[in-house]
Structures are given as C-alpha cells and as structure tokens.
Specification:
Layout lengths: L2 H5 L12 E5 L2 H18 L4 E6 L9 H14 L6 E4 L8 H12 L3 E6 L5 H13 L7 E5 L2 H5 L1 H5 L4 E6 L1 H6 L19 H16 L3 E4 L8 H13 L5 E4 L2 H11 L3 H16 L5 E3 L2 E3 L1 H16 L6 H4 L8
Length: 328
C-alpha cells in the first residue's frame, strides 16, 4: 500500500503545500514570477513554490477593478502544473466583492487557494466563503492572514474552519497594531524573533494550525538582500517555531527558503530506510538501528520524504515511485 493510504488518517496535513509562497503584485513581476515558477518546475520535476498574485498591495488606489482583471488573466494563462493563488482585499474593503467575482468567477478553476488578509474573526471566513461560493469557487481553499492581537487571540477558532487551509502571520501590521508599544526594530530580521509579544504571536499561530491540521506560514523578511539573515530566519521558523511554509517577496529569496526548509541528505536517507522497512513489514513495528519504530515514527519519516520532494531534493531511487503516483 502507498504510505499516504496507510498513514493519512493521523498524518498532519501540514505537508501538502510547497514550503515557499511567493508574492508579487506589479504586472511585470507577476509575469516574471510565473515564468520563474515554470522554469524551476522543469528543473526540479515538481512545483516547488506557489505564486500568489497580489491585489491588496498590488492594486493602485482607484484601479482595483482592472488589477483584478489582470490577476484573473494571468491565472488563466499560467501553464500546466502551475500553482497560482491570489490575495484579494479584506472582507470589509469596498473592492472585496468585486475582487472575488472577477478573480474567482473567471479563474477560480486555476487557483490553488485564495488569501484573505486582515482576518479578525471566524465570521470573516464565513463571509469570504459565502462570496467565494457565490462566484463559483465552492471548495476553493482559503488562507487567512493574521495581523492583529485580537486575531491572534482567535487564531484557534479561525484555523478550525474547514475551508481554511493555512494561517499566515502579518508581522508589520501586527507590530503597528500595538500603537508604538512594540518598537519598530521588532519588524526586522532579528527583533521579530526576540520581542516577547511577537514571538508569542508566532507560536500561537503555529500551534493553532497544528491543532487543526492546517499549514502555518511564516512572515516575510524585508531585508531581502541579506540572504544569510533570511536563511537564519527561515531555519528558526522551521526548526524552533513549527512553521512549514514561508513568504517570499523577491525572487532571490525562493531558493534560500527551499534550502532552509529542506531536510538534510542524512535525514532523507534515514527516512527512506525506515519507511521502506515499514512497508516490507506491512507497517507493523520494527527495530531499526537499535530503536523501535512504529506508526507514529513512520508518519514523521514519511513527512520528511514529502518535504524533500516539495523542496526539490534528490530522493533515494527505491522511494521515488511513491512520488510518481497520483496522490490519494
């Protein structure tokens, strides 16, 4: 049996999305992002990052309608296998309904998800679902951007909604929402990992996601020229804070994030050996390198292999076949 079929029941669903979510809102950059996605898909043999076309920050004031039309056209024109999403305006913004009607109504079948910014309450998700379904997007996953102290407080309830697939942390809006009580350096690459209120918010969002089998997506690093700082931030988010995905705002960040979230070659080899041995044992407990392994550890090691595949890492030949079959 395929490991997904055996382990899916209790397997955390945080492994189903690429580890990088790349945002762009200017037409030239949106087009280049989609071109880069196609190039890297050909390079790695799988789509290793999402492209989210941005209306909230990308649309000029007064130009929301034509920008939404452009986003729909770009999504419709994306090549086979492309993973394209869109960020619309918040549910209380005058352009929200128009965004959804245009983008979901025209290109909903090409979208992998819709990002809803400034979600404050589960009722915002209910309103978004109503609008998306009315536009013909029934079943389209929603991602929610958590950007305020009140939203952090309600993160567990927001993550519990069945249409929510992922929560993202909006660092800069979160800091700004405190009216100067959090210093500006907490928006930077170092301060965001040391200020207690920011760190508490990140942990709450990650915990809410894992409690409900959703994907926690870490915020941007605005110092996009500093690749070492970005790599350090991504590793901290992945290894210490429980995040399985992260935003990119510049093409140079994408490969850095793939490397930071990827398992090591040693971890991949160990995971492959254990999952293969489990398969041979019909998923009964086994002894491997002097340690007991059972369904709980099999799930973990399968997730390592899933993450390796998502980040374009080379897989041992004996397990590659599992990633060439349709997913359950």
């Amino acid at each position: 049996m395929h490991p997904r079929d055996v382990l899916l029941g209790a397997q955390a669903r945080s492994g189903v999305l690429p580890v990088c979510d790349h945002y762009s809102g200017v037409e030239a950059r949106m087009r280049k992002s989609l071109e880069l996605q196609a190039q890297m898909t050909a390079e790695f043999g799988t789509c290793v990052f999402d492209v989210t076309l941005d209306c909230e920050d990308g649309a000029p004031v007064g130009g929301e309608a034509p920008h939404a039309q452009l986003v729909a056209e770009l999504a419709l024109g994306a090549g086979p296998g492309a993973r394209v999403a869109a960020r619309v305006h918040p549910v209380d913004h005058p352009a929200f309904e128009q965004d959804v009607r245009t983008i979901v109504g025209r290109a909903g079948s090409r979208l992998v998800h819709l990002m809803i910014p400034k979600v404050e309450h589960p009722d915002d998700i209910v309103a978004a679902v109503r609008a998306v379904d009315a536009a013909g997007g029934a079943g389209l996953p929603l991602h929610a951007l958590i950007e305020s102290p009140a939203a952090v407080h309600r993160a567990f309830d927001i993550a519990a909604h069945p249409r929510v697939q992922s929560l993202s942390f909006g660092l800069m809006d979160f800091v700004s929402a405190h009216g100067g009580a959090i210093p500006g350096d907490a928006m930077g690459v170092q301060g965001q990992f040391t200020h207690p209120l920011v760190l508490r918010a990140k942990l709450a969002i990650a915990s809410a996601c894992h409690a409900h089998g959703k994907v926690p997506s870490h915020c941007v690093v605005t110092e996009f020229r500093d690749t070492q700082a970005l790599a350090d931030a991504a590793r901290t988010a992945a290894r210490s804070l429980g995040y399985t995905r992260m935003w990119s705002i510049h093409p140079d960040q994408i490969r850095v994030l793939l490397d930071a979230f990827a398992p090591t070659e040693r971890d991949i080899d160990t995971a492959a050996a254990i999952v293969l041995a489990a398969d041979r044992a019909d998923w009964a407990p086994i002894s491997h390198a002097g340690k007991l392994e059972d369904r709980a550890s099999y799930r973990f090691h399968w997730q390592v292999l899933e993450r390796a595949h998502q980040t374009g890492r080379a897989l041992p030949e004996d397990v590659r076949g599992w990633f060439q079959r349709p997913q359950a």
